[in-house]
Task: structure prediction
Amino acid sequence: MEKAERKDGLGSNFIKTFIEEDLKDKRFDRVHTRFPPEPNGYLHIGHAKAITISYETAKEFGGLYNLRFDDTNPVKEDTEYEEAIKRDIKWLGYDWEDRLYYASDYFDQLFEYALKLINKGLAYVCDLSQDEIREYRGSLTEPGKESPYRNRSIEENLDMFMRMKNGEYEEGSKVLRAKIDMSSPNINLRDPVMYRILKKNHHRSGDKWVIYPSYDFTHGQSDSLERITHSLCDISFENHRPLYEWFLEKLDIFRSRQIEFARLNLTYTITSKRFLKQLVDLNIVEGWDDPRMPTLIGLRRRGVPPEAIIEFMMSVGISKKENVIDIANFEYCIRENLKKTSSHIMAVLDPVKLTLVNYPESGSEYMEMDSLPNSPDENKRKIAFSKDIFVERNDYSDADDPSFYRLSPGKYVKLRKAYIIKCLSAKKDLNGNVQEILCEYIPDTKTGTEYNGKKIKGIIHWVSQSDSTECTVRLYDRLFTVENPLDAKDKEFTELINYDSMKILSNCRIEKHALGANREDRFQFERNGYFCVDMKDSNEKELVFNRTLTLR
Result:
């Protein structure tokens, strides 16, 4: 598989070409982009692409970047989501500085825009129900039908719209629609809804409004009010662009240029908010921050560095064509980052006692370990070595298998950064489970991997019984069993869940060095993979580690 490679910036792409043309033709004399999330959920890996493109594009042209919450639906939005979105963007390393905006800040201006369109005969109050509007809209192959209320007079529409604003009508009884073209091949232009009645308090504007603008009526005008030059959107907004441009043209206000790019699609991953919410609501995962989730907070808890996410976005580049990227490319970027930045430590996930029968009873010594690859001396650590240590249970086998290079009676192995040892036997309980492995150590073999002229092929990790502590380790795997969960037409996506995607291991053993770790610190457990200290459940009483990835 071709590996993803870090690029300098976003490289050459069609968005950059369009912007260069706009600057050359003096359509704009600057570059100003934005990221406009709806505060109705948590950001996921797909949003990270949109954030990266908007931010890095502005940065490359010496421009500005806004964060704007398109908070037009008081039913689904919450300050919890707003705070989470701000936190996640900051975690990625992006800063909107003092340019934080809300669509709700523009409600007064949007209302004035609606009045302007009514006065121009380009908007009308419609009494059709939501289902009737859908029925009248037609289909991709059949034109829509005009509403029987489409030709109300300007005066009647103004009066009714003001009464909508004053709360005189019930929810669902009336909407304000744009008067465009019910026979347009673009369904978005078939008299879309501009305002609906929602007698709900807004988390920012309180009870000031009982009518709220639709997302489509808000989106383009908000960009205009902020003087955004380039509105960079994913491809799902392409068919909405003619509508946004129609509003801007008819209102005769500043016109941003919208440019669409392909969304990020990964194998074994779902990024639809609707389906992610189902995973949470059905308790398939433990919340939006579950390390199996593709949300940014989930990836963060799992130990994915923000730099690796940005590096991945740089590597996949920008295209117009939708495709599905192998998640292995993302994992490659994560491993490459962790390989350089994660401290090394030894942890035994399924410990069994190993006793060195010929090691001095009261003897102990310290072995020097690299905390990072090729660490300078001041970054090395020392761990205690003694008669009693722990090793992985699966590093022992009774079988006389020539291809098994670990512990078997009569075989030699090298303990990582310590001695060569010879396995003698194992003590078992009545069920045949190994309780203790008996070995003898070979003096003067700390610095090599040869004994009696033979190369010792097996090297295993270990921890000292006296210089280790217990911890809990969570092993995570892919949440879905198929590459494209939403393409399995004959099955519900919940039938494709890997219900073994999380395994919890208690009574693991790790060097006491880990007791000084902070939440979110990342480690490479020798031979076991990359892990991080859980940011939520780890505390002074219990160390909890989440596995980010295996070593390969």
Notes: The chain has twelve helices and 27 strands. The CA atoms of residues 47 and 264 lie 8 Å apart.
